[in-house]
Write a structure and sequence with these properties.
alpha/beta, Arc Repressor Mutant, subunit A, 3 domains, four-stranded mixed beta sheet, 11 helices, WH_DNA-bd_sf, WH-like_DNA-bd_sf
């Protein structure tokens, strides 16, 4: 198996056509077809379905595509790491952010990266926590901000901040608690709009409920912060989330946030793979994430976040 075969295969999938991939790669289509055939023979599996309208990945092709992308990215990172030994950090760094963190961290980090490291191209991807974990393991991400649920032993991790989950609902809703703080049992009386199981906050809520001998029953599952926000404003129920992703609506008075007792806390952590060395550029961005986080907490721009001691 050769790197060019991986590049060819990724290009074919990305462009959905052998002919379009051949044009982009400046490779004759028969040569491209031959390399693809050799790759399939070596793997012992058909990777693509071919038709007059283009190509589609088989199940084996989808799996191989993810690995091919990760391998090609690591080759680029290795080349950049060597080059950066004698130059300022440069190259591309991919950082994954959970939906509920990106609103607080993404823009300040992008601004700081452009100012401090203009030679670095910082690529941000926003996903649910479970997806970020898999991408970091496979090498498709250099860094990821994850929630410490006790399952991060396979990563190099640096705690950033701690956040309390708040009971949040529409102002003047029937779900607004009569007093603060609200107990978890009282919070569970209302329909709760929560992310699905693979999201970082959901296991914390499930664990807190189990410890109190309670069960989550009336749940509306929504993984999108934007849709979850719309559901809250439509008074479909309440949620248990940190302040940051709903800061604007809380400050405007459209939503109200009430502390929960006993508190449910989540720890936000910056993670990297233990098996794939960071480039100088990724190391620089890792330092910058910590610096920007400290600045946001000191200036109270990351609502409800406390620097981890």
């Amino acid at each position: 198996m050769e790197l060019r075969q991986l590049r060819y295969f990724v290009a074919i999938v990305d462009h959905g056509s052998l002919s379009r991939a051949a044009l982009v790669l400046h490779v004759a289509q028969p040569a491209l077809t031959q390399q693809l055939r050799q790759l399939e023979e070596e793997l012992g599996a058909q990777l693509l379905h071919r038709s007059a309208h283009g190509v589609l990945s088989t199940e084996a092709g989808k799996v191989f595509y993810e690995h091919a992308q990760a391998i090609l990215k690591q080759v680029v990172d290795a080349r950049s790491a060597v080059t950066q030994l004698t130059t300022r950090p440069s190259g591309s760094v991919t950082l994954g952010l959970p939906h509920s963190i990106s609103g607080a961290l993404a823009l300040p980090l992008l601004t700081a990266a452009r100012t401090t490291y203009p030679e670095i191209t910082l690529q941000l991807t926003e996903e649910i926590s479970g997806s970020l974990t898999e991408q970091l393991k496979s090498g498709r991400l250099n860094l990821a901000v994850l929630f410490d649920d006790g399952q991060l032993g396979g990563f190099e991790s640096t705690p950033l901040v701690e956040e309390d989950l708040m009971y949040i609902c529409r102002a003047a809703s029937s779900w607004v608690p009569p007093a603060a703080p609200v107990t978890l049992g009282a919070a569970l009386v209302s329909p709760l709009i929560l992310p699905a199981q693979q999201h970082g906050v959901r296991p914390l809520i499930e664990q807190a409920a189990a410890s109190a001998g309670l069960a989550l029953s009336n749940i509306i599952e929504i993984n999108s912060i934007a849709i979850l926000k719309s559901a809250l404003l439509a008074d479909m129920g309440a949620t248990l989330l940190p302040l940051a992703p709903l800061r604007a609506e809380i400050e405007s008075g459209a939503l109200v946030a009430t502390p929960v007792h006993p508190p449910i806390q989540r720890r936000v952590t910056l993670c990297a793979s233990r098996n794939i060395p960071l480039t100088n550029a990724a190391t620089a961005i890792s330092r910058l994430v910590r610096q920007v986080t400290e600045m946001l907490c000191e200036n109270e721009q990351w609502s409800g976040a406390r620097l981890h001691e």
